[in-house]
Amino acid sequence: MNFELNDEQRALQDSLSRLLADRYGFEKRRGFAASPAGHDEGTWRKLGELGVTALLVPEVHGGFGGSGCDLLPVMQELGAALSLEPFLASSVLGATAIRLAADDVLQDRMLPGVAAGTTCVAWAHDEVAGRHTPRWVETRALRQGDRWVLDGGKANVLAAGLAQHFVVTARVSGAADAPDGCALFLVDAGAAGLENRVFRMVDDSLGGELNLRGVAAIPLGDPTDGRRARAAIDTTLAVGTAAACADMVGAMQAAFRLAMDYLKTRKQFGRLIGENQALRHRAAEMLVSLELARSMAIAAAVAVDRPEGADAALDVHRAKLSVGRHARTLAHGAIQLHGGIGMTEEYAVGHYLRRIHVLDQLFGDGDAHAMRLAALA
Q1: Selection from 79, 70, 15 nearest residue 47 by Cα
Q2: Cα dihedral sign, 75-78-81-87
Q3: Whether this model's pTM surpasses 0.85
Q4: 126, 216: one domain
Q5: What percent of the chain has pLDDT over 70?
Q6: Which residues pair with 268 in a beta bridge?
Q7: How many folded domains does the chain comprise?
Q8: Is there a domain that residue 331 lies in?
Q9: Residue 268: which domain range?
Q10: Cα separations in angstroms, 264 against 259, 275, 279, 347
């Protein structure tokens, strides 16, 4: 696919690349992962100052009103750096859900802080029983007088330990798998009845599980407007999927560079191992996987910018399926080209496979998206 960044996108990517190279080297990143915070608060502030956190927030709320294509180079740089910052959780998922579902009052209240990076909002939608089913929601919302309360549980909540607020999907009517009957609610992280079990995922990023028992919540818009809620959920998941694809491409690029550098410097029996024809063929296959994944990530970004297109939903599912498979293939190859050192905790290449594994599972794995493609076809 022929795709060129414009001047603004290229300038932002260059600035972000320099920032992450300065503050997010692999050894520094290992220190951030081992810290109680689980990320680098200084880098997160810098991302806010650079305007990265404001990318998808509308201009009226202090953002840039960016698109999926604007998001593409940013996610690639964050993926290459193995970033632990809550950008996907807050600046992508949280910001998109609030923008699409909240009324003007809540948007005025929440989005300026999200744009500045001073407010972290996490997306809480997945549930254990759903397992890659995008519209499975068992969590219930009940109206008690003039307020709403939520009961249920949420899994795979990115940046759960860093969020001040959660955007929670809950059902106001219908069965757990009904296409309509859901609404979106804003929940304070310190609300009574909310239990937040925070853990580290396999790539060292923060995740969590929420247990809600009579938790007070503020509806984003009209809870009875199922059509708007459904559109907000579907679009948020689509944008998140496109972002995950771009992140995986960034991780692939970095793993490929590490492997190529190793082939050019490692010697055995007096010769560079990169002179071995079998390894050169393996490297060529990895490059093909990278370029295919890059094209599919671009297709996903274009699809979320043009959701009215006939094949928009298909392109997102195709991208997640294809990028996930090619990313795993490349990461496995990069580790194998390194030999034993590729399996060590102290070397970066194995950490790229871990990140790809987490991203591949987010928003549905390859099998889930293959099933959705079959259903749409």
Answers
A1: 15
A2: negative
A3: yes
A4: yes
A5: 99
A6: 271
A7: 3
A8: yes
A9: 229-376
A10: 9, 8, 11, 17
